[in-house]
Design a protein that fits this description.
Blueprint lengths: L5 E6 L1 E2 L6 E4 L4 H5 L5 E7 L3 E7 L8 E4 L1 H7 L6 E8 L10 H9 L1 H9 L2 H12 L4 H24 L4
Antiparallel strand pairs: 1-7, 2-3, 3-6, 4-5, 4-7
Helix pairs in contact: 4-6, 5-6
Amino acid sequence: MNSEKISFTANIIQVEGMNAAYIEFPFSVEKLFGTRGQVKVKALFDGKVEYRGSLANMGRNCHTLGLTQEIRNKLQKAFGDPVHVELERDLEIREVIIPDDIQSVLSENPEALAYFEKLSYTHRKEYINWITSAKKEETRVNRLVSFTTNLSKRRNRIRNNGLS
């Protein structure tokens, strides 16, 4: 299992019909990391923008790494532009910091908490970012209510379908 940095340059590819992008990893994930599945990685783009993500095989002949719009904006890059990538396997534990108010609401709602804890790191992170990015307190409260309601509904739907 390789933990050394791997450097390469790749063009930013647009996901057809979407404002989403990825780069193709030009090496064999199986040879470098001993797996054909997803590999958690830390990447540095053009020597200035850090990112934690996963190399994933999305039905192509190679693994890919998503490039968020935020990263493209920081890099001032568009679809088709080349980007230099330094990449290494990410062995650190991925933990989402949950603000006290959100933790309090989750603690009071075991259905929502149970579902939240089963979500992937990325989904947990995105939920927390969505709530905490609210500019107004009223919006934050509304998002928090929506968040717990949706998590509880999803947990109940899974339970009712016999999937838990």
